[in-house]
Structures are given as structure tokens and as C-alpha cells.
Amino acid sequence: MPTQAKEIFEAQSKSVRELFSDNGLGLYLPPYQRPYGWGKDKVEKLLDDTLHGLKNLSKAPDSFTFLGTVITIHDVNHVTVKPIVKSEVPAKVLTVIDGQQRLSSLLILLVCLHNLIRQRAWQVFKGETPDPTDSIRTHLNSETSDILQMLAAAFYERKNYGIKPPIYPRLIRAFVDQWAKDEKLKQYDSPIANLIYKYSLLVEGESVSSKPTDFKPAARQDAGEGEGDLIKRFSEIRTGLIKLSQRKSIEELEALPPLATLATSIDFQRALFNHELAPELCGWLEDLEDGPEAELMRLIMFAAYALNRIALTVVQGKDEDYAFTIFESLNTTGEPLTAFETFLPRVVMAEEIQDYQDSDAYVYMKEVQGYLDRFDVGDKLQNATRDLLVTFALAETGEKLSKRLPDQRVYMRDTFERHKESADDRNAYLRHLRDTAAFIGNAWEPARNSPRALPGLEAAAMTDTVKLCLAFLSSLNHTIAIAPLVRFYSEAVYADEGEARAECIAEFEKAIKAITAFTVFWRATRRGTGNIDSRYRAVMAGVDSLTGVGPLARHRAVPDPSKPDPTVDADALQKELAARLSHPEHGAIPNLASFLADASALPIYKISRPLARFLLLAAYHDTIEDPKNPGLIIQGKTGVASCFTADGWADETHLTVEHIAPQQFTGGWDAEFYNDKETVHKLGNLVLAPGAANASLSSRPWTEKKVLYAALGAPTADDARSILNGSGLSFAQTTEDLASMSRFLPHLRALGQSENKWDPTLMDQRADVLLRLAYTRLKGWLGLELSDSSTDPVLKVENDELEVSDDATGAVETS
């Protein structure tokens, strides 16, 4: 018979009293729940909502204050409770999936009210039962006793075990708390359970005839995370309630309704207490304004509203998966738990709770958490976690994991379950997750003001080329490249020290160079991304390989002994990427000629500014002015003009992408640049120049602009001054300011030496030179041969190996 909706979940609206005071109820916080973290603003809003509700109730007896939805699992078999004394668990355990911050805050509000009402009751009654003939004090004492009993029943329960019935806090947290009647087994160490338990012990241990101890909790040494916030919120609630009871105003909070309103409105009394107050008490309350009795009655009024008129919708799901699905559907303003947070308890249970903190798994998970702790709870944390797990899934099994929370939770659960029975396999899985987080958090996107690093590797592993490639790929937001890089990084981290480690580090650098070159050649020859992500995913999964290489991912998503094993090999990756670039059904860039034809026709600046900058840096590196072609550059000696470096990439002060012919048409420029709006954005019209000089460069005509280029690229400041002063031109900036920006940049000097009019023909000639230089510099990173004309060798894939051929057609064949 098909499953009915009511079998999957049920939802009931309950008052605070109905929820917390349910006989045999225990609320349980699973280990992935965040520590208590409500701020002062949220506590003030809880108080204000309650006060506003009280005010409305005095006018409309059917009003409630609704605090939203709490998502729970009715854990009938107690499978979520760890640790556990099975025979002593509360009869009904609700595992809280969402709402623990509200529930914890409501409980400390109830504890605080109970404590303050006890204090005021002592001031009024001194622990003695009023004379029966004093009907006013007798009724006041009865209302006091009733509200204290209701409050106490909401935050703890006395179990009927033995001579000394044990106290069970209503809310406890996994791993650090345990319900039990035996003193040796019970454990209430979490901030919320400890606060409730200590206060409950205090209440149960003191005689009604003695002055009650005023409960003022203090944070314990080495207490669990969140205790400081919990204690602060308790103190703030206490202060607020005291002021309210004394009719002192609190900024931005409403006041309590006057006692006279309570005394004269029977509907108000029934709504608050579920009964009418005695007429004698009402008559007395009408004129009561100050003193302990008035303060006591105001606290009772507030407590009655909190218990009976604050409501929540409690959803009870069949199991964890259903509960999270319900949560995703209902939650619109809350802060859902991330897939990593819900994955954590599976790791803990696999390691066994008592062994977890001494395990390798604990270390790995702490390091992942350390990375995620950078992000504020909310969208930033959710996005960081989703991105981490998408990358991890690609590196682990070559799968394209969606960013939907349910899908990510299922993926982490299912893939971890495959390794659950073997400690070594579990550790390898978690270590790989840790490596992914370490790479993203240190090499790809380091914390603010921190340099890029490769944790676990020698500092020398972060070579200048690696830094340059990482900075470029990150700037391009090319996150698909992280997964293959993680595989090589992880191999290097766990290689034996010495020669093996050095080889793995060299493999990592070779891999990042191959990935960077492939990405540049691919993106520079397409208007968009050209579906490049799918190529990387295929490489990670080992799908449709052109060279017969196995998957780069750590495991296949579906094991298949008939297919090649996973391979972490930079040569193999280089060959596969080169084959995909050259294949006519993939990249269709088999040689330099095809690269030049496609890249020169595209508006590179519009496609990607980081890509344009990277190509220009690669082209400019160690070049000099071309003496045969003024305005152009040629390759020079090593070290003559170093800019294709990590420092060159970071130096946007002197090396910012600018347009030679301005983006908008002005006088002094060839109108042909503007017949097609894309022309000015082609690589040949782009230059790297000091951004600070833009005010002077601006939209000046070519004859003036080239003077500035010559000055800005001059070898010395004196040379720059000479050029500027000899020009007879005036600029937006002073000669001295412009001279101070100068730096030996042959590509700028070359433009300054141009004897021709700047027009699309010259721009195309320059583009051809720049793209050739960039291709020549990067081709070796991908294992390509220079293949410009019919006499040059071209790439050929034959017998699953990449070779060089003399095929005059320039075509690439596949076997």
C-alpha cells in the first residue's frame, strides 16, 4: 500500500507549555547542530514580541505570538541518541533538526522567570503560607505556586526512579550529555543542559521555608562553545525582566500592560491563565502599582503569556532525510544546516563516540571546519560549503554534484558509506576532503592578507609559475580546475619525503601549467566558455578519453574492472588535454594557424579581462622593440623585460589593460574601429599600461597617445621627462607625475616608435605578433609543437599516443 503523507510527517501548533511540558518528552540536539549563538538583538526581539503580544491580548483574547516552525524527528527507536542508556531514555524523544536556537532561548527565558518569581515570592511571603483568612494573599500565593510549577515542568522533569528521583533536563545535546538516573552515568555538560540541570538541582534542593538562592550562572572554564553567549543572553533577559517588573522603561521595548487592565478584563485573565482570577485579588490589583507584590504579579503575567500564548508549529518527520526535505521546503528566513554539518555525525558514529577525539578523522574534520569557520553563518557559509563539496565530489568520484542541499547530503552519506567498514578507507576519504578544503582555503582563495600556500608541502613547492597560474585561474573564477589540481596536490602531500616528494611536486607544477595553457587556448578561441567544464569533468571521470587514460578522480563513481584505473600522472593529463584541444569535435585547435585565426577575430577584452591580461603578459615577457617593424615587438633575451611572473600579474598599478583606440569614438581615430562595436576589444587594440596614467591617456588622438606610451615605457624617469618636454604637449597630469610612473616596458616603447597611423590593419598585425608570442610561450606547457604553416609539424593522435606528424594538411586524425 502506498505511503501516506501523514506517515511521513505531522505538524501541530503548540504553546510553549504544551510542547515542553509533554509528559515523558526529551528534546535532543544532534551533534551537527551549531553551538548556541543568539545575539542580544534576537533576545530583545523575543521580549518585544512577547510584550506586543500581551498588549494585543488585552484587546483581543484570541491573539498569539507565533515563533515559527520547529522541525524534528520523532526518534521512536532512539537511533539518533548518542551516548545512550537505552532503558532510561525519555519515553518520547524529538531530535531537533531546526529551531534549536529558539528552543534554547525560550528555555533560558523560562528558567529566568522561575528564578525571579521565586525571589519576589520570598519577598512577599517569606516562605510562609498566608493566613487562610487573608484571601488576597492566599489567591496571590496560589497563582504564584501554580506558575512556578508550570514553569519548572517546562524545563525539567522528575523521573519516578528510586528513592531520589533523578532530574531530566528537557533539552540536551549529543555526545556531551546523557539522560540517566544513575549519578555515574548521567552527564549534562552542554551549555543549555548544564544551565537547566544546575538550576533544577538548586530548586529541588532548597526548602520552601528558606530564602532561595538567586541563580546567576557563570561560564565554566573550558566549557563548550556557545556557553558565553548563553550566559550573556540569560543575564540580558534577567535585567530586562527586572526592569519590566518595576515599570522601568526599556528603549525600543513596549511596557507591560497595567495591572489594572488585567484586573478589569475577565477575557484577558482567561486567555492568560485559562481561568478567572479571584474577585478579591482583582479588586486589590486595580490599585496596586509598586512594591514586591506588584513586581511579582507582573512577572506572573509575563510568564503566563510565555507559557500559554507563545506558539510554535512542531513538525515531526519520519526520519532524518524526510525531516531535512521538509525543512528545505518550509525554511525561507532561517539558516539551514550545511551538508558538511549533517555529515559530521556519520563520521563520529563510524569512529565510535568514545574514540572520535583521538582519531585521525577528528583531525581531518577539524581542519575542514577550520576553513568553513571563515564564513559567517548564512548565505556565505552555505555557498562556501556547497562549492567545497561540488569540488570534492568531482575530485573523489568524478561526479557533477548539484548545489542543492538534499543532493549534497545524500552524496556525502552514500559515498562515505562505501568506506565505512574500513578505518583506512574512511581516513583516505576524509583526508581527501581535508586536502580539498586545504587547497581551496590556502592556495586558491587564501584568507585576507595571507599569501598563497600549499599546506603540507615545502615552501619551495609554491614556485613563481605556480603562483602565477593560481592567481590567473582564480581571477578567471575557473573553479572547475580545482578538482584536478587537488588530485596532484594530495598525491604530493602524502608522498614520502625526499625524491618521491620532489617528483610529486614537479608533477603538480606540470599539471597546473597544462591546465592553464589548455584553459587559455580554449577560452581565447571561443566567445563563451565553450563548455570547457564538461571537458574537465570528462577527464576527472575518465569518460570518452582520447588517449586511453583512466579517470583522474580518486575513485570511479561506479566501479568497473574492465576500464583503466584512476591515474594521477601529469604527462597523461597533458596528452589528454592536448588531444581534446586539437580534436575537431572538441577544441578544433590543432595548430598555431587555427589559434591565430580564431583568437584574433574575437573581442578578448569583452570575453574575459583576466584572459586578455594573461595573454598580454605572456606576449610581452622578455620582448624588445622590433627594429624592422616600428610599433611591434619581438622576442628578446631572457631577463630583458620580465613581466610574465606572479609579481607581474599582481602589479596592476603598472600593468592594467587599456584600449589603444578608445572604446568610444572621438576625433583623431580611424572611424573604421567603430563600424563594428567589437573591433576595439580585440587583443591587438589592448595594451598593458599604468592605470594611474589613464587620465592623461584617456581619449587623446593617436599622435599624442603614442608620445605618452613612449614616455611611460622609457628606461628611466629622465628619459621620460625628455620625451614629454620635447613633445610640446600638455597633459592632465604633470610631467613629474607621469615621469614617476615610467618603467622600462618595451611593448610601450614600441608603440611610441610607431610611424604609421593606428588603424585596424596595424591592429591586426599587432594581434598576430602578440598571439604568436603568447602561443610560443605556453605551447610547451601543454606539450604542443609549433605548427604554423604547411611545413611545420602538427599534432596527431595515433594509437592512443600524442605524436608529431608532418601531415601537410594540418588535420588531426584519431584512431
UniProtKB/TrEMBL annotation:
Q: Matching Pfam families, A to Z?
A: GmrSD_C, GmrSD_N
Q: Which domain of life is it from?
A: Bacteria
**Start and end of every GmrSD restriction endonucleases C-terminal domain?**
598-772
Coiled-coil ranges per UniProt? none
What the entry lists under InterPro entries is as follows: GmrSD_C (IPR011089), GmrSD_N (IPR004919)
Q: Which residues form the GmrSD restriction endonucleases N-terminal domain?
A: 17-343
This chain belongs to the protein called DUF262 domain-containing protein
Question: What organism does the UniProt record list as the source?
Answer: Streptomyces apricus
